[in-house]
Each structure stands twice: as C-alpha cells, then as structure tokens.
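From the shared-data thread, chain only:
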Amino acid sequence: MQFSHPPSLQRRCRRAALALVFTFVAAAASTFAQTGAAQDAGETVRVTLLQVNDVYQISPVDRGRRGGLARLATLRKIVLEESPHTLYLLAGDTLGPSVASNIFKGRQMIAAWNATGLDYAVLGNHEFDFGDAVLRERMRESKFTWLGSNVFDRQTGKLFGDMPPFVVREFGGVKVGLFGLLTVDTKQTSSPGANVEFRDPCRTAREMTKQLRARGARTIVAITHLTIEHDKQLARCAPGIDVIIGGHEHSVLQSLSGRTPIFKMGSDGRNLGRIDLNIHRRDGTIESVDWEIIPVTDGVEEEPQSAAVIAEYEKKLSAELDLPVGRTTVELDARQETNRSRETNLGSFIADAYRKYAGADVALLNGGSIRSNTTYGPGALTKRDVLTILPFENPIVKVEVTGATLRAALEHGVSRVREEKEAGLFPQVSGLRFTYDGRRAPGARVREVTVGGAPLDPAKTYTLAVNTYVLGGGDGYTMFKDARLLLKPEEAQVEPAMLMNTITAAGEIAPAVDGRIKRTDER
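Structure, as tokens:
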C-alpha cells in the first residue's frame, strides 16, 4: 500500500483556498510493489472519504474565517463531481455542546447535516448531552445513518436507537464496509441513561470485521470517536481495519499504527479531510491511499440550500444572543489545547469567578468545560460568546474537602499531561498555587501546593467551588463523592449565567496569567 496526496482537487479549487496539502508516505510500499506498480486503470476503483469530526457550530467560526457547514457542502459537491464514489463522514460529536444546542437541543445540527448531504456519522460522547430520549429523536430526524457498533440498549439487547451494526456499500464491484465505535468514557463525560451500555471497542471491532468479511467487504473503514491512543490500540487489536476515520480530539492528527492509517481533522469544520482509497477491483486490496487536508476558509462559497437552512436558525438566535454583556481589553484564550494543558487567562478568570461567587477558599474548574476552541477580543463580549465558552449549564456548588482530597484532585488533574495532549480533566484553579513535574509517575507529580499563601495542610478542611459535573465524578474526579455540600445545586447559579453576571458587573475585564500553575519539566 502506498500513501500520497492527490493534486486534482487542489488544482480545481484554488479559488476556494484549497492550497494546504500534506503528504504522508507509509512504510507499506512493499505491498504495493508486490501487486505490481503498473496496474491497468480499469482494475482500480477509487473510493473517496470526506471527513469532519467534532463539529458543534452550523455557521463559520473564528470570526467567520473558518468552517461553516454550507462551505463544507460546497466542497462536497466539488469532490463528488470529480470522484463519484464519495462518502461524507462525521466522526462524532455534533449535538452538543453549543449555544444553539442549549436552545434547540441539537435539532439545528441535524437540519444542517441533512441539507449538506452527510452519509454516515458515528455517535460521539456529546450526542448524549441532552439524554437518551432527545438523542433518539435527533436520530429519527436524520436523513443520514448513525453508527455505533459498541453502544447497546440493555433493555432490548439491541444497538441504541436501532442503529445497524455496520453498512456495506458497493462501488464499481468493490464492497466497502463501515462501522462505528464510541469511547466507553461516555458514561463519565456525558449524560447517557442507566440502560445504555458501552462495550469494549477492540472486541467489537474484531467481531465487526469478521462479519463484514463474511458479507464480502474487502475494504473496512472504522469511524471512531476515541482518543488517538485508543485508535492506535484498535488498529493493533483489530488488524482487519484498513482505515480509521477518527474524532474526539480537536487537533489535526495523522498516524500510522501497524499498517492502518488514522486521520483526525480538528474541530468545527475548519478542515475537510479527503482520503482517496485506490482499491484493486479483482481482489479488493488497497493499492494506495492519497489524502489531503482542505482548509475550509472564507474563500469557499456557501452552498445555497444549506445556507438557507442555517440562516433560519441563526435568525432565531441572533436577536437574543448578540447583545453585548461587557468588554475585554485583552485577548481571552478559550483554545482547547491551552486550557487542557496549562494555566490560561480565561481559565483563571472563570475559576476566580467561581470562587468569588461561592465565597469559597479555592475553586477548581476542569479545562474541558471551556469550549469554543478560539480566542475573544479585545473588544465587546456578547451573550453568545459567554454561552459558547461555557455551554454546559452545570450549577456551581460549594463543598467542604480536606487538604488531602484537594491534593488528590490536583494529582488527578495533571495525571495525563504527558500521555494525552488535550485531557479535559486538566485543572484551572483559584485561591491556590501549585507546581508539578510531568516527568514523574501519575499520582506523584504535584510537588508544592499553597492556599492563600500558606502550604496546603492535608488534615485541614477547605471550602471548594466546583461545578456539579466534576463533583459527580465527571472527568474521573471521584475523590469528591463524599464532600459535604454547603451550597446545593438547586440553590446555585449555572456556569454561563454566573460568568455573564460577573462580566456585566465588572463592565470591563483584563485577566492575566499570574503563575498559579507551574510545570517544572517544561522550561
């Protein structure tokens, strides 16, 4: 098998800003050599996979410069004209979280995906944000097919929402099989019901590849919503998978695990992945894989039908959400990579607001709660901005914890900084300062902690402001399960309302990084 990039789409779409092309040459070229480099063109079938993942906004992001489902629809039509055997795939996470989804419960995403011609989507963890009943309703509204081969309904024993276990598509005499996998961490990172079961991805993948082979599929595509490490493990434990179309992380990632390429295209449709599988017609082997990353920019025209659907939803949102609530004199950092790996000015500002609101000694915010993956200002801040930054309506509570529990929380928060670049459990804090060493083993990384300028006392009781997601064990923060509630959820403000009130009361903000979190192995 050989990997390279196709020049055709780049040539045809220069005016649509499709100039960014990456080339990936794999060590599997020997297989290609064995099948014969001079294959007759009639013996090769090209199947094109178009990939996006973790798309929460129907409209462009980054102040209109990137993304937008109507632009994606335009690019899909261009590719389809040039490569008729094309499948448009979403690798999970779209119903939430977002400002619009808080209002429409993801209905706007389904309407837009239907208009743009999506073919298949794997369930992402955030598909369960509004509960099982809402997800089933959204699935019924979908004109495309949802996949999730390891997501079961315990009551019926069937796949959730009556999804098919897999699909087989035939192109030019070549059968291509597709199936989907969702991270088992969804139990902790979203709101599935007690009857939803997430089975082991590896065991599921082995069974799916076996069944697909029995149905005549020679090329197998796994659409996954897993971490890159779990995708790599999947490729090793289920070697029958030819390509992994992945999601969950919000960075552009490519990898080769064994002989299986893995692709992730970032978030919010900023990029469209094109993967061309050149398949031998007679024996179904993949002779080569050509791929490119297509930037979705404001140079791409919007497809009219999709744009009309999106405009209707945006009209409903704008009147309420576009009013200013305050100003920032500095750029606010809401990027995912930074908020899930280090102190940021926005993370500190939100944690400070938590602590002040609850009247607590300290505050802890999981970095994964800060969404939108962009920056704001300097300039006006709107209600839309606030709800995009903190879309989850988690109440902020106050609890009592010991110093030992607080230290355990910090250890947990930095336990994956080397293993996972964007772990949502990374802690943004207030009222305390801590130093840690990422080289040390998880559980022994935190070196110094001070609260209010004094060393942390393991036996002392402190008050902590925290959201109910973390308090309930979200992102693995199980150490708070026995904490005594001082401010109950039913009496508390939710995160976006608290942040909005804080900004409005201040009028103008200028948060800064002050060194409250230090990493000694990163200088």
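Residues 41-280 form a domain with the Purple Acid Phosphatase; chain A, domain 2 fold (CATH 3.60.21.10).
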